[in-house]
Design goal:
14 helices, about 80% helix, globular, two-stranded antiparallel ribbon, ABC transporter involved in vitamin B12 uptake, BtuC, mainly alpha, about 325 residues, about 0% strand
Length: about 325
């Protein structure tokens, strides 16, 4: 019993939970509205964007890759679905087209990385820049209103009167991908590819096939985020998701996903998501100036990367000693 308690207390997820609980106590003590139902919904709405991005991003990070085009892929998806519906395409068909666009984007990223041999950092940043420019061209740098109440409902329905539907979808995805990571052969292979690509090849695993699937998966998830955000905002915006992919990386690394691959789980990612979004929301609620909020987010990102560095070094030492 005592050993089980020690394992729980020593787990990084328990530490994250304590930090998040402390943040909630501090913000509530400063402003009681922090725990109001309306503000909790605001946190959930913010968490859905970062959190859904983090699902696909975490899988890529565990495999040893990353995708810096996620935010602009989602933003481009929101613009495209708005333009399609305004052209008379039914919202279901428009959503399918946009998800296919995300899959194609994933294939493009995988082609650059796995076929041409580019680093994921450079190639996905290039794709992101192209999409950012195209979105401004297609919209003339203006928001694209959506006049479809049926589509709006995807972003406005509250499940059990508390959870916004996009947040509920995020929870479903986190649960599903958590099961895939720990209860399937594909999940085990993913960890092997991220932990040691050379050994995984010797074991008969094709790392390029795994990462291609993950890039496609990430593109589809990014397009889903952009579509749901467009439904919530009732418009497609060429600037709405700026920086969200970095927030997703921050949340994933805070949650224990190793930036260089090989470790992490979706429960930790969920805690990282909630810590990041609660922290950002709390700064707003207590009246911290917007410029200082940007500084605080940067500090949190640096802290997450530093934590990941020391965590990975400790893991390597443990492997060497064993």
């Amino acid at each position: 019993m005592k050993s089980a308690v020690r394992r729980i207390i020593g787990a990084k997820e328990f530490t994250l939970f304590l930090v998040m609980a402390a943040a909630v106590v501090v913000f509530t003590a400063i402003n009681r509205n922090f725990l109001s139902l309306d503000n909790i919904r605001n946190i959930f709405n913010s968490a859905f964007v970062v959190g859904t991005f983090a699902v696909g991003m975490s899988c890529l990070l565990i495999s040893g890759e990353l995708d810096l085009s996620s935010a602009n892929t989602g933003m481009m998806a929101g613009v495209l679905i708005s333009l399609l519906m305004n052209a008379g395409v039914p919202w279901v068909a428009a959503l399918i087209i946009v998800l296919f666009f995300g899959a194609v984007t994933g294939l493009i990223n995988a082609f650059f990385v796995n076929v041409l041999g580019f680093t994921a950092f450079i190639s996905t940043l290039g794709v992101s820049t192209v999409y950012g420019g195209l979105a401004l061209v297609f919209t003339n740098a203006q928001n694209v209103p959506i006049g479809n109440p049926a589509f709006w409902s995807l972003g406005s329905i509250n499940v059990f009167e508390v959870f916004p539907l996009p947040f509920f979808i995020m929870i479903i995805l986190l649960t599903a991908y958590g099961i895939i990571l720990f209860a399937t052969r594909f999940g085990r292979r993913l960890y092997m590819v991220g932990g040691n690509p050379n050994s995984s090849r010797l074991a008969g695993i094709n790392p390029k096939k795994i990462t291609t699937i993950l890039f496609v998966n990430n593109g589809v998830i990014a397009s889903l985020v952009g579509s749901l955000l467009a439904a919530r905002m009732h418009m497609g915006s060429p600037l709405a998701l700026s920086g969200s992919d970095l927030d997703a990386i921050t949340a994933a690394v805070l949650g224990g996903v190793c930036f260089t691959g090989g470790s992490g789980n979706m429960f930790g990612v969920f805690l990282g998501i909630m810590l990041l979004t609660s922290f950002q929301n709390g700064l707003v609620v207590v009246g911290v100036d917007s410029y200082y909020r940007v500084v605080a987010k940067g500090v949190l990102l640096v802290a997450a990367l530093a934590l990941d560095f020391y965590r990975e070094r400790a893991r390597q030492k443990q492997l060497l000693s064993s």
